[in-house]
């Protein structure tokens, strides 16, 4: 297993983020969270992600359900609204085995699955343009979706919609998971930018000034 991680410097120009990797037998578990409003104290996102993961793993249950359970546990922690913690975060987590990939997302941190060098699956961005017209009308009335198409609609801790789990069957002999933030994918179609981001994750050099980009090869 190889892990490549490029995260923007914590210098105020990019939101605070946390990344977590857990090895559990035949499973690899990867999670990321982003305080998009930079509302929490320094280090709060990383601490909350680590503590929620520890509680989640200690609570039992199979690795396949880990991404969804972690989303639930982190959401519960955020809703307590403790001092110094963000009100909400964007979230992405994935559990990968030899035959299965289970992901759970809330927001526009995007998860891609690359098999034998080919993009095969990805999560959808939780933005206004991707939600049902009925929900948009009930929630926002006559808002112009085209002018607000990338407005986020889901997050952990404060959201009218739940995190979204997906399950993919892995067919390729070589699998990679790519997680990136919206300041890198910029809400482009995955087919148009995944190859660029996949290569950038493993490229030598200093991390980008902004953006979260994590690539895990199995």
Description:
The chain is built from 5 helices and 10 strands; from the N terminus they run βββααββββαββααβ. Helix 1 (44-58) packs across helix 2 (66-79). Strand 6 (110-115) and strand 7 (118-122) form a beta hairpin. With 218 residues, it is an alpha+beta fold. The chain has a single domain (2-217), classed as PPM-type phosphatase domain (Phosphatase 2c, domain 1, 4-Layer Sandwich). The strands form 2 sheets. It has a 5-stranded antiparallel β-sheet. It has helices at 44-58, 66-79, 133-140, 182-185, 190-201; strands at 2-7, 17-24, 27-34, 90-96, 100-106, 110-115, 118-122, 164-169, 175-180, 212-217.
Task: Record keyword descriptors for this entry.
alpha+beta, globular, 218 residues, five-stranded antiparallel β-sheet, 5 helices, 30% strand, 24% helix, single chain, Phosphatase 2c, domain 1
List the uncertain runs: none
CATH topology description: Phosphatase 2c, domain 1
Helix content: 10-25%
The CATH architecture classification is 4-Layer Sandwich
Largest sheet, if any?
Answer: 5 strands, antiparallel
Q: Which of globular, elongated, flat, extended, rod-shaped describes the shape?
A: globular
Strand order of the largest sheet: 1-10-9-6-7
> How many structural domains in the coordinates?
1
What is the H/E order?
A: EEEHHEEEEHEEHHE
Structural class: alpha+beta
Looking at CATH, the homologous superfamily is PPM-type phosphatase domain
Strand residues, percent: 25-35%
Number of DSSP helices?
Answer: 5
Distance between the termini: 5 Å
Question: What is the radius of gyration computed over CA atoms, rounded to a whole number of angstroms?
Answer: 17 Å
State the CATH class: Alpha Beta
Q: Give the beta-strand count.
A: 10
Mean pLDDT: 91
